[in-house]
Design a protein that fits this description.
5 strands, single chain, globular, HIT family, subunit A, binds zinc ion, alpha+beta
């Protein structure tokens, strides 16, 4: 059974609809305020706070699914590198108490020398606070979600050929 926690941004029913990819227990969501094009989040469908709350099956699925999501994002946005970032616990900078893995796909000089980790820290606040960074409009958000879904079909067609 899914545990849904009221007020949790990642437990909202809409998230299931807005995911561009899903597995049995996880969703891949485009970041509402991406630090770079393609910046997405992997979240468990049930309300789990920490990586340590996931069982063995979920832990294995997390890695397999996140690899798949990363490959898809790299294909969709023509990138050849990536950062994964996980803040686990308040003292580690976790602001939303629902497990989320940041996937930031990278390209040469994409941040113009800025520190990506600092931007991730700021982004974590944005997930809760709408005033700290510009957010995508609903239309833009939908555009990226649909674009990635479409790219997923293309990627699978290529691998079948
Ligand atoms: Zn939640």
């Amino acid at each position: 059974m899914d545990t849904v926690t009221e007020g949790c941004p990642f437990c909202k029913r809409e998230n299931q609809e807005m995911a561009f990819l899903e597995s049995d227990n996880f969703l891949a969501l485009y970041n509402i305020a991406p630090i770079l094009r393609g910046h997405s989040l992997v979240v468990p469908k049930r309300h789990a706070v920490s990586l340590m709350d996931l069982n063995e099956t979920e832990s294995a699925e997390l890695v397999a699914f996140s690899r798949k999501v990363t490959l898809l994002l790299q294909f969709a946005f023509k990138s050849d590198g990536f950062d994964w970032s996980l803040q686990d616990g308040i003292n580690a900078g976790q602001t939303v108490s629902h497990f989320h893995l940041h996937i930031v796909i990278r390209s040469k000089m994409d941040l113009g020398g800025q520190d990506w980790f600092q931007l991730i820290q700021e982004n974590n606040k944005t997930l809760l606070d709408s005033s700290s960074r510009p957010r995508l409009s609903d239309e833009e958000y939908l555009f990226y979600t649909e674009y990635i879904k479409d790219q997923y079909k293309k990627m699978n067609q290529i691998s079948e050929d």
